[in-house]
Structure formats: structure tokens, C-alpha cells
Design brief:
Length: 267
């Protein structure tokens, strides 16, 4: 049986790029990082105003096309830098000494992680005609012989079942998923059930939590209609910039808050 959640480091600190099955997501990671790293002062967001759409544009102005170029997690001073190829696909993510490389060939993607030039992992991702992952096999260890594998099954574009196996053996771990109005609303793995809520008046876009984790891990397997609002009672809110882009994702758990701040390049 695999652990409840998995953190695959891409830098000195543990960062949230694991498989979606292994929530409760990155909030605990933020708390860990805040103990060891200086907290940067972010001027691009305003507390308490998250989730309010403030996009402004003149009449008849065409909204620019924007690409996310950096993401900075609160408690860290090393942002993710996103680099794209000539086709507009994510090609590299650089975070300090860490590198994630994405190489595309037909219906597959190879995602390779290194830190200071040392191999960390390599994932072989197979995708279907909709661009959703159907099988992800990740190799780790010095000789890249240890592996874990997850298969994904869909009803159209809605994930209905995933099955996890690993080179360590043991019984497969199966997770099932339910949807409502094109949003994932629950996942069941063994005796554990996770439930999700959404801002039904806000469509999905870059900077949503699922978008961020899909972007880092290099493949997509949850394709929602709306922005994520709640997981395990922890609340996501969003600040928006003048082009309507999400500038800050804020996660609140009790009296504690954590953030991801985004920057974009627009044309």
C-alpha cells in the first residue's frame, strides 16, 4: 500500500509535485519550509481580497495571451522558472539547482528531474487523444531501476479510476473518483474519502492548484471546469491581476496561510 501522499523534491526543500492521489497537498510542505527558509515579502498580493475578479480593460481591447513564467511559494526565495519550446509547450522548469526537463514524442512525454546535475527520477507518461495521462511509470534510485506505476481510466475526460503499483510489490492500490458538473468532487481510496468544492462562477485557468501541480509533474489527469475551492476543509482563494490572470493562490487552514505568487509574460 503506498503512502497517503508523496512529495518529490525538485529543490533543497520538499516541494509539492507528487501524484494527485497523495493529498493533503502542499499545505504541510509550506509549514515545513517556513521553519528553514526566509519568508520573502510579496507585494503582488493583498490579503483578504482573494477570489475577487478585478480584471480591467478598455472597451474593444483584446485580452493579451499570457504565459506563466514564474511561481514562488511562500517561505522560499527560489522561484520556479517556466521555459517553453517553439510550440508553446513547457520545456524546462528551473528552481535554483533543480531542473525538470519535459521531452515530447507523439503520445508520450519524458519528465526528468535532476538536482545539481544528479539524477532524481524519470517519468514515462503516455497520454490519450485528449492529452490526459493514461499511464505514468516513474523510475528512481541511483540506477533508475526502482519504479512505481499508475494507470488512469476515464469516462470521456473525467477520471474514474487509478491503479498504483510499484517495484516493491504488494497489492495494487485502487482509487475511484466521482464528478459533478464536470468537476471532481470526491476520491475514494480504501477507507479514505476526500471531497472537493469549487468556485462555480470562476472557470478553470492557469494558477489553479490542479493547473500548478499538473504543470510541475508534467502531465494532466484531472481536468475540471471551475477553480478549486476546498480540499480537506482547507480553503483556496485567488487574487487576479489586471489581465484577469491569477497572481496569487492562497491556502488557509485555521489561522495559518500559505501562498503561491505567479508572474506572466503577455503578448
Amino acid at each position: 500500500m503506498p503512502p497517503r501522499f508523496r512529495l518529490q523534491p525538485v529543490a533543497a526543500a520538499d516541494l509539492p509535485i507528487g501524484n494527485f492521489r497523495f493529498f493533503p497537498i502542499f499545505f504541510r510542505v509550506f509549514l515545513k519550509m517556513r521553519k528553514y527558509l526566509k519568508i520573502v515579502v510579496a507585494s503582488v498580493f493583498t490579503l483578504g481580497v482573494a477570489g475577487i475578479f478585478t480584471a480591467c480593460k478598455k472597451n474593444n481591447d483584446k485580452k493579451p495571451v499570457c504565459k506563466m513564467i514564474t511561481a514562488t511559494i511562500s517561505g522560499t526565495t527560489t522561484p520556479y522558472h517556466f521555459i517553453y519550446n517553439s510550440k508553446g509547450q513547457l520545456s524546462r522548469v528551473v528552481a535554483g539547482s533543480a531542473l525538470i526537463a519535459y521531452d515530447y514524442a507523439g503520445d508520450s512525454t519524458i519528465v526528468t528531474r535532476e538536482d545539481s546535475g544528479r539524477f532524481q527520477s524519470r517519468a514515462v507518461v503516455m497520454v490519450n487523444s485528449s492529452g490526459l495521462a493514461t499511464n505514468v511509470k516513474t523510475y528512481t534510485g541511483a540506477s533508475a531501476t526502482d519504479w512505481d506505476n499508475t494507470t488512469y481510466e476515464y469516462n470521456g475526460e473525467e477520471l474514474k479510476r487509478s491503479t498504483y503499483t510499484s517495484s516493491t510489490g504488494g497489492n495494487p492500490s485502487v482509487t475511484t473518483y466521482t464528478w459533478s458538473n464536470h468537476n471532481l468532487v470526491s476520491q475514494i481510496s480504501g477507507t479514505d474519502t476526500a471531497r472537493f468544492e469549487y468556485y462555480t462562477d470562476k472557470p478553470i485557468q492557469d494558477g489553479d492548484y490542479f493547473d500548478f501541480t499538473n504543470r510541475i509533474q508534467g502531465y494532466e489527469f484531472v481536468r475540471n471546469k471551475n477553480l478549486l475551492k476546498i480540499i480537506y476543509g482547507q480553503v483556496f482563494t485567488y487574487d487576479f491581476g489586471q489581465n484577469g490572470n491569477i497572481t496569487t493562490l492562497e491556502l488557509t487552514s485555521g489561522n495559518t496561510k500559505a501562498f503561491i505568487d505567479y508572474e506572466y509574460e503577455c503578448h
